[in-house]
Write a structure and sequence with these properties.
Elements lengths: L14 H4 L6 E3 L4 E4 L12 E2 L2 H11 L5 E3 L21 E3 L3 E4 L4 E4 L5 E4 L9 E4 L10 E4 L2 E4 L5 E3 L2 H5 L14 E5 L9 E5 L4 E3 L6 H7 L6 E2 L4 E2 L7 E4 L7 E8 L7 H8 L1 H4 L7 H9 L4 H5 L3 H12 L15 H9 L10 E5 L9 E20 L8 H8 L10 E16 L1 H9 L1 H20 L10 H21 L6 E8 L5 E10 L16 H16 L12 H4 L46
Parallel strand pairs: 4-22
Antiparallel strand pairs: 1-2, 2-5, 3-4, 6-7, 6-10, 7-13, 8-9, 9-10, 11-12, 11-18, 13-14, 14-15, 16-17, 19-21, 20-21, 21-22, 22-24, 23-24
Helix pairs in contact: 5-9, 14-15
C-alpha cells in the first residue's frame, strides 16, 4: 500500500473472480483496501491457463490484444516470513482514504498526517492505522475506515465528500479555522438518521440527508469519474450515490466461464490439440530439435508420460491433417460446442473431462431423451470487467455499453482467471415435446404476460429493449432451480455448491437441456455425490417426482403463485426466495426469468394448462 510492499491478508483465487476482484473493496480486520488494476499485478508470479475457447470469448470482450489467461500471483509459503512469498500477491491500496478514530471519533484523511500505519510481519492481520489522541506506540487507538463512500452507475468509486456535505456545498480547508470533523452516532440501530457528521465550526448534518436518489441529486456533488483501483480520474459528471462501505452492490463481476472440452479422441491427441498453437510450428523441425523445445515447455509434464516417440508421431500426424478434427463455429459461442459434446458419443477417460450415458427413468422417457453423467469436468472462469450499484443484466451487451468498468488503464494484454474441478449431470429433453408445449395457446399467453413484465422492467431502468430469452428458457431455468434444491438435500452438498448451465435455443440447431454441476476450489465438488444420484434410473425418477411436488406449493403462497410480473415490472412470475431463488453462485442469471407456472400447476391454479408437467 502507498508504494510499500506489505502483506495484509489472504484470498482464494476463486474469490478474486467472484467476490473480491479488481476494483472491489476488501474489508480486512482493521483496514479496508481496493484491489488494484492489472497494470500493477506482477505477471511473473502468475500462472498461464490454456483454454482456447475461453480465450477467444475474452478477446471478443476486451479486444484481440489479449494474449493469455493467467491465474492470480502466488508463491508457496515457507516457514520464514522474510522469504519472497510474503511479498507475492495481489496489489491493493488503502480505500477509503478517510478514517475515523475509534476513541475520539476524529474524522480525517489518511494523508492528513493524523494517522500512522502500523504493520507486523508475523501477523499481517494486525496491519492498522492508529491515532495519537491517547496512549503510546501500539497502544494508540485504531483508526477505522469511514463508513460511507460515493459510487455511480458508470462504475466509479470515490471517498465521501465529508467537508462538502457537512458545510452544505462549500469546501473550507480541513483543520483550518476550527474545521475539524468528527463522526457521531445516536442509539444502537445504525440507521442513517442516527448518524451525524460534526464540524468544529458548529456545523452538523445527518447522514440520512445523503441516502437515496432524491437526496443525492440535491446534497451530493457530481461524480468525479474516479477509479481508485487504477489511480485515475475520467470525465463523468453523473449522479453520485452514497453507499455503505460494506454494501453488497458495490461490485458485481462480469465473467465468462467455459468447460474444458475434449478436442480429440485420445488423451495424447487431446493434449496435442490443446497446445497446437505452440506445437504446430515445431512439426517442420528435425525430431530431436523439436522434442528438445517441447521438453522445455510448461505443459511437457502432461505429455511426458506418453513417451517422446508417441508425442512426435502425434505432432506429425496432426500436421499432415490426419488428426485434424476442428469443427467450424463462432469462437465467441461457448454453448454450441458444449451442447454438441454433451449430446454426442460418450467421451473416454480424459484428465479433464469424462462422460457416461445411463438409462433414462421409464416414467420420464416421454420428455427426457438422455441422461448423461459427467464424473469429471473442469471449468475455467475469466474476469473481464465489473459494474457497481446494479448487477449486470441478462443482456450483457447493454451492460457493457452503459456501465462496465475496466480492469486496467491500458488495453489489457491478459485476463485474470481461475479453474475449478467438479462433476455433473446433464439432462437432454425431447425437442418435439418442448416445441409442442411452446406452441400451445396457454403457454403463448403466459409468455406474453412475462415478456410484458420484462419490457416494463427494462423501460423502468432506462434500458433499450433487450432480447427475450423465450418460454423454453424460463421452463428449463425454473426446472433447474427445482432440481438444485432437491439434489442438494439428497447429495449432501450445499445448495450454493451446485451450479447450472441451461441450454435453450430454437432455430436450425435447437437446444433443450440442463447441466447441473459442482465446481469448487476444494475437494467438495469432486467426491461423486452428485453423479451417484442419476446412476440408477429409479433414484433419479424419485428425485424428479419430489422436485416437481415441492414446486407445486410454496410457503409464500398464495402471494407467490399469484404474482403478476406486469404489476411490479419484474423478471419472474411465480417465484420467490422460499421456492425457486438460488444462491448467486448457482444461478447463471441472478434469479431472473423464473416461473413455477411453466413447470407445474401452482396453488393459484396457474400452470394447470401452462405447466410442462401438468
Amino acid at each position: 500500500m502507498n508504494g510499500e510492499t506489505q502483506r495484509v491478508g489472504e484470498l482464494r483465487a476463486s474469490q478474486l473472480l467472484h467476490t473480491f476482484g479488481v476494483g472491489a473493496v476488501v474489508d480486512l480486520p482493521n483496514i479496508s483496501v481496493v484491489v488494484r488494476g492489472l497494470d500493477d499485478w506482477k505477471k511473473e508470479n502468475t500462472g498461464v491457463l490454456r483454454e482456447n475457447r475461453l480465450l477467444a470469448a475474452v478477446r471478443g470482450k476486451l479486444g484481440g490484444q489479449v494474449k493469455e489467461l493467467r491465474t492470480p500471483p502466488y508463491t508457496p509459503p515457507t516457514k520464514s516470513v522474510y522469504d519472497d512469498w510474503t511479498r507475492v500477491g495481489v496489489p491493493v491500496a488503502a480505500f477509503p482514504r478517510w478514517l475515523r478514530c475509534t476513541r475520539c471519533r476524529r474524522l480525517a484523511s489518511a494523508d492528513s498526517g493524523l494517522f500512522e500505519l502500523l504493520s507486523d510481519p508475523y501477523r499481517p492481520d494486525r496491519v492498522r492505522f492508529v491515532h495519537g489522541c491517547h496512549g503510546q506506540g501500539g497502544k494508540r487507538p485504531s483508526a477505522v475506515p469511514a463508513r460511507f463512500v460515493l459510487a455511480c452507475e458508470a462504475g466509479h468509486l470515490d471517498d465521501f465528500p465529508w467537508m462538502y456535505f457537512v458545510h452544505y456545498g462549500s469546501v473550507p480547508e480541513a483543520g483550518e479555522g476550527g474545521h475539524t470533523l468528527s463522526f457521531s452516532e445516536r442509539g444502537s440501530s445504525g440507521e442513517a438518521r442516527n448518524l451525524f457528521v460534526l464540524c468544529g465550526c458548529g456545523q452538523r448534518r445527518a447522514m440520512s440527508e445523503a441516502i437515496g436518489q432524491e437526496y443525492a441529486e440535491r446534497n451530493l456533488p457530481a461524480c468525479r469519474g474516479r477509479h481508485p483501483h487504477l489511480g485515475t480520474f475520467e470525465g463523468c459528471g453523473g449522479l453520485s450515490r452514497a453507499m455503505s462501505l460494506s454494501a453488497t452492490n458495490a461490485w458485481f463481476p462480469l465473467r465468462i466461464s467455459a468447460f474444458t472440452l475434449p478436442e480429440a479422441d485420445t488423451a495424447l491427441d487431446d493434449e496435442i490439440a490443446r497446445n497446437w498453437d505452440l506445437l504446430g510450428a515445431l512439426a517442420v523441425l528435425p525430431k530431436e530439435s523439436a522434442l528438445n523445445l517441447v521438453e522445455a515447455m510448461a505443459f511437457w509434464p502432461e505429455l511426458e508420460r506418453f513417451g517422446r516417440d508417441a508425442v512426435w508421431d502425434t505432432i506429425q500426424a496432426r500436421s499432415n491433417g490426419e488428426a485434424e478434427q476442428q469443427a467450424e463455429h463462432d469462437d465467441t459461442d461457448l454453448a454450441t460446442p458444449e451442447w454438441r459434446t454433451f449430446t454426442g458419443p460418450d467421451v473416454p477417460d480424459l484428465p479433464e473431462f469424462t462422460t457416461k450415458t445411463v438409462p433414462t427413468p421409464p416414467s420420464a422417457a416421454s420428455y427426457l431423451e438422455r441422461v448423461l453423467l459427467v464424473p469429471r469436468l473442469r471449468q475455467v472462469s475469466a474476469l473481464y470487467g465489473f459494474t457497481r450499484i446494479d448487477a449486470p443484466e441478462f443482456d450483457v451487451v447493454a451492460t457493457e455499453d452503459a456501465r462496465v468498468a475496466p480492469l486496467s488503464a491500458e488495453a489489457p494484454l491478459w485476463a485474470p482467471c481461475a479453474e475449478q474441478r467438479g462433476e455433473g449431470i446433464f439432462l437432454k429433453f425431447r425437442e418435439e415435446r418442448i416445441a409442442e408445449w411452446e406452441r400451445s395457446a396457454a403457454v403463448i399467453a403466459r409468455e406474453a404476460l412475462l415478456r410484458d413484465g420484462h419490457d416494463r422492467w427494462r423501460e423502468k431502468r432506462g434500458m433499450k429493449p433487450g432480447e427475450w430469452p423465450g418460454a423454453r428458457y424460463l421452463l428449463l431455468h425454473s426446472l433447474a432451480h427445482c432440481l438444485i434444491r432437491e439434489f442438494s438435500l439428497e447429495a449432501g452438498y450445499s445448495a450454493a455448491g451446485i451450479a447450472e448451465r441451461v441450454y435453450a435455443r430454437t432455430g436450425e440447431e435447437p437446444m433443450a437441456g440442463i447441466l447441473l454441476y459442482t465446481a469448487a476450489p476444494d475437494s467438495e465438488g469432486t467426491l461423486g455425490g452428485l453423479v451417484s444420484l442419476a446412476e440408477e434410473p429409479a433414484r433419479l425418477e424419485g428425485l424428479l417426482v419430489q422436485a416437481l411436488d415441492a414446486a407445486r406449493l410454496c410457503s409464500s403462497d398464495p402471494l407467490c403463485s399469484e404474482h403478476d410480473p406486469t404489476d411490479s415490472a419484474r423478471l419472474h412470475g411465480a417465484a420467490c426466495h422460499a421456492c425457486l431463488f438460488a444462491a448467486e453462485t448457482s444461478c447463471e442469471h441472478n434469479n431472473h426469468y423464473l416461473d413455477r407456472a411453466l413447470v407445474v400447476e401452482t396453488m393459484a391454479g396457474t400452470g394447470k394448462e401452462t405447466g410442462f408437467f401438468g
